[in-house]
Amino acid sequence: MTPPICDYFIKAFTRVVECGYGDEVVYIRELKPIEEQTHEDFRREFVWVILNSGFKEQYARVIFDRFWDAINKKTPIEDPFSVIAHAGKRKVIIECFAKSGEWFNQLEELTTPSEQIEFIRTLPWMGGKALGYHLARNIGIDAVKPDRHLLKLAEHFGYPSPLEMCKDIQANLNGGMFLTKEKLGTIDVILWRSMNLTGGKIE
Questions:
Q1: Shortest CA distance to 146 belongs to which of 98, 188, 194, 199?
Q2: What band does 177 get if pLDDT is binned at 50, 70 and 90?
Q3: DSSP labels for 72-88?
Q4: Mean pLDDT of 35-61
Q5: Confidence grade of residue 55 (pLDDT, cut at 50, 70, 90)
Q6: Looking at the structure, do residues 111 and 64 belong to the same domain, yes or no?
Q7: Burial letters for 71-106: b for 16+ Cβ neighbours within 10 Å, e otherwise?
Q8: Is 61 found in the same domain as 132?
Q9: Which of 42, 76, 93, 185 could disulfide-link 137, Cβ–Cβ 3.0 to 4.6 Å?
Q10: Same domain, 126 and 178
Q11: Cα(153)–Cα(161) distance, rounded to whole angstroms?
């Protein structure tokens, strides 16, 4: 018997696509594995995750785009880091720009996803419940971030963790509208975006 979370997941997927976020799902599905990423990819995603911390995704996107436009000299902002008003985030992003090559080289020396995730979680700002997993997923490590939306869903459907919930979906929804074996990270982003669209309500 298919677990109830799978019925919810199908509804979530439909909601995400109908609301115009299908490209986001495709992006996560097609992410290059960590072995094919570069330290520039790592740095960009590090900045994205830092800016998302404690902010709504839609607001973080505005800051992120303004920052990279300044970095790429698309706007006449002399100091791109001045775009980031939060002093703590600005400081750690400046540190990332100085050390991202070193950090990424260390990450590449690790061979298992669990080792890679644990290393990421030792980096500045990444030791919280979800941030390190968020960065891992976005640089091609198949991970699930235990943020408040996924924790709420896991509790509602009776799972000990978001990871176990996503694994159950992965094991029970193969084929049809989904890939033969959907990545955990793709399942994560579909569930998260659906909850984001409903304001955190399980519908």
A1: 188
A2: low
A3: TTSS--S-GGGG---HH
A4: 92
A5: confident
A6: yes
A7: beeeeeeeebeebbeeeebbebbeebeeebeebbee
A8: yes
A9: 185
A10: no
A11: 9
Is residue 203 in some structural domain? no
pLDDT for 174 equals 73
- Rounded to whole angstroms, how far apart are CA atoms 202 and 83? 35
Please give the Cα distance from 189 to 145 (Å, whole number).
Answer: 9
Closest CA to 112 of 1, 27, 35: 35
Rounded to the nearest integer, the mean pLDDT of the chain is: 93
Burial class (CB in 10 A: 0-12, 13-18, 19+), 193: buried
CA 1 to chain centre: 30
53 within a domain of the structure (yes/no):
yes
pLDDT digits (tens, 9 = 90+) for 92-139: 999 999 999 999 999 999 989 999 999 999 999 998 889 999 999 999
Full domain range(s) for residue 162: 4-31+146-197
DSSP codes joined into one string, 6-44: HHHHHHHHHHHHHTT-HHHHHHHHTPPPGGG--HHHHHH
What amino acid occupies position 62? V
Number of domains present in the structure of the chain = 2
Residues 115 and 155 in one domain: no
Of 179, 148, 167, 161, the residue nearest 30 (C-alpha): 179
- Token reading at 2: 């298919």
For 2, how many CA atoms within 13 A lie in the half-sphere containing its CB?
12
